[in-house]
Amino acid sequence: MQKLLVTRNAVMMKRLHSYLQRRGIPVTVSEHGNQLELWLTQSSYKALAKDLINEFKADPEAAEAELENASQSKPQVASKPDSMVQQLLQQAGIVTIVFAAFVSLVFALLNTQLATAIFDALRISDTFTDVPWSQPWRLLTPVLLHFSLLHFLFNVFWWWYLGGRFERFYGSTYLVIALVFCGVFSNVMQFMVSGPYFGGLSGVVYGLFGLAVVVSWQRPRHPLFLPVGLIVFMLVWLLLGYTDLLWVSVANTAHSAGLIAGLVLGIALRYVEYFRKKKQLS
Fold this sequence. Notes:
3-stranded antiparallel sheet
């Protein structure tokens, strides 16, 4: 993600955003305070994007007229709508896709004769008290373990929905940081409460949820902005885990710890954005 332009002129930003998208430039607009920010989602388009922005700023009407004339001169060919798979892939980045595939592979293996060996290799510890400092990857690997189809589908869906949007806007590196931080923190907290017999991506999912709420707070145009109904659903589901109303065993501590970790990351990320913006304006 690279910032291309900052402005308070909403009309101009709307026209520029439309112009660049029609020229095939992958851009998105976010709101930061009373300013609008134009972001490039693929760095390979940077040079072309800057040239087109300069062309547009020099004479917006001429640039739009030229684009309109060019589009009218081309033969109109009915475009084939993207398949569901293509649409899903467009909503995620490489880390989102690869990790979802890895989780799916582990779930498939847990339904074979290798289940015991897989669980023993990926659970956080072989005892109820010893944190595996000599095997640090075990602090994260429980996020790969899912023990029912519903558990697996629920977590992969939210990983794709929240993680994909996060990666597309902030980049793969930030998603890896969020995955490791929220995963390790939620796993260790759950281990301290209940021992090593747990698994799931829910702690990371709630971490991404908390992160999304913070970074998009009062920024309705932000790609991670969540509707109130979805926020209420996630919080109600979290609270239901502490009751006896659900038909499944829930790692409540992992959910709560993941949410806390995500809120902390979200606050940190907003500070990073604030200081980065302040540096650009100085």
